[in-house]
Task: structure prediction
Amino acid sequence: MMTIYSPFRPLRGLTDNNRPSRAALTFTLVLITFASACSKKTPIPPPPPPPPPPAATAPATATPAAPGTPVIAAFTVEPTTIERGQSAVLRWNVTGSNNVVISNGLGTVEASGTRRITPPQTTSYVLTASGTTGDASATATVTVTGPAPPPPPITRPTRTGTLESRVQSDLQDALYDYDSNNIRDDARVALTSDADALKRILADFPNARINVEGHCDERGSAEYNLGLGDRRATSARDFLVQLGVPANRLMTISYGKERPVCTESDDSCWQRNRRAHFSVGQ
Amino acid sequence: MTRKSTFLLLMFAVATAAAIFAQDINVWITGSTGKPALAVIDFRGSGSQQLMAAFNSTLFSDLQSSGVFDMKPKSVFPLNNPQRPEDLRPDDNGQGFALSDWAGAPVNASHLVFGYTAAQNGVLVLYGNVDDTRQTNPQSAQLLASRYTGSLDEAGAMKVAHEFANDIIQKFGGSGSLLGSRIYYVSKRAGADEIWAMDWDGGNQKQLTRLQSLSINPAISPDGSRLAFTSYAKGTPRIMMLDTLSGRPLPFYNQEASLNATPNFTPDGKQIYYASTAAGLAQIYIAGIDGQGFRRVSHRDAIEMEPKVNPKNPGLLLFVGGPGHQQIYQMNSDGAGIQMVTNGEGEASNPSWHPDGQHFAFSWTRGYATGNFNVFVMDFGSRQFVQLTHSEGRNENPDWGPDGRHLVFASTRGGKSQIYTMLADGTQVKQLTKDGDNRTPIWGVK
Result:
């Protein structure tokens, strides 16, 4: 089959490509680390102005922060979205608190500060500030995007597939004209790739034998079709042997029209049934 | 002469030839002197009403489906129906106890079938008579007077009816007999394709093989004792032989080949022809009844299947093959004299020799789309043919009954393939199977 190499080569290629890309990631990380190290030198922005005093005439609808109740003036992450492996900076500023804790392993921190984080996936950090008369908390989320996950491995059976599954999926039918065992151009293409696949399968399963089945459509008589199916199986077998498939590993068997793949009385079903097909031999 | 008039002349010649040959078929069925006109009374007896109903319908159906007789309708029968010869008298004023009452209008029967049944010592006894209505002397009028015994149940009633009907058919020159004959066929009704057997009237259907693979192409020996068929039980198609009675396998040596198939017995039952790919293409071989001593018969570059030996001349075979689309060929048993028998039109298959060795039935797509087979009968000598089915589904695998008047065949006319019988003129079609998918019937003497 033409795609027979795909189970192996593309996978190996992916593995090879991963190495340089990992190196590149590491390099990026170093750059980021360097960049964030530089950013530490920038001065901390001034705290926001304090809230205006409550209007004297207004009733105390909003309870002003009582002394001893912490106020989280800022809790941000920059940037809010990173690629997996990159880092971001958490920045916070809390007043009126005697204990500030940030979740996800950062633990107790100063009342204000910054911290470089490299979360493996999207993470929400919760800052909890405790005061003598109350608590306050805030959340900052950093979204981690990854490179698109590698495509699932191609489902063509690999060398670990069973004999049955390999025969079923690596080998394709050769199709015939009505009442003919002539190898058409499309059958030539199919059988040429079948020959490669058969060599691999027979190499991987040294005791296996493969049946080359000959089948017919429903129109001729059942008896004549036994002879015709045998001719089709033999012509396919001979073609494969010419391409180097060991003859003693191939068995021909005619099913005539006894084992159709479809039973509709139309051209497309008849064509599907006029075939040489492969199965695991005894 | 214009092309049109040539064509018309040709058509006329063909039609005339076909008409003459159709008369041949009628002679097989009815004899050369026309059909005897039978009046069959409803028999009475000591058995239950149900039992006598089974008896009367079996007797009537056997006589009618034989095709030998012109069956007179019971609605015109006179009042009195004789049961014993003693009941007959020279004159009954048209009331029925005189044979002349049956000879004249409105019955117009040439023969009267009458009698009765009685239960004697737990056994059903049938007293059956056939008299010639045109004889005035009761002694010389008597053609048949016989006694038959059966079990005192429906099966026994049907048995004596079959036997009596068979004797009547024989009396009127019907050759061979269907009585006791069996039909072997491939049925999928139990899952896999297995060989089944049934009585000639469709009764008593039984599974013979339980190989759970593909069992196809049944062939029965002339004496009915052996059944050969093609089996996939060992992977590739091979010939298997069974004892028909016990169902036990008998030894058969298969050649080293990807295919050994379509067996056929010689008329003496001592050898088997079959197709084998031992030398490449499927070709005709002959071997002993145990498969030993095989020998290749033909040496052509074409597929050859379905060898069928002439019952009267074991030196002559028909077979089906190429080159080109499948046709019926003839061949001498030494492989010489190969020539096409059908005319190359369409696709032809399934030859079955008539017991007379002069005619054969076969399936042919002539006049229809590829794959649409119909049953035909051909006169081997003149190559004239008649068509018996007319494209109600696929009609295939005709095989002659031992009487030479009936054919069994498979048809998809009702959807799935089923087994049917018919008279050699295409009438009296009867469906014998209805469960599952049934095909490839062959008719054995037992």
Notes: The first strand of chain B starts at residue 37 and ends at 40. Residues 26 and 32 of chain B are 8 Å apart (CA to CA).
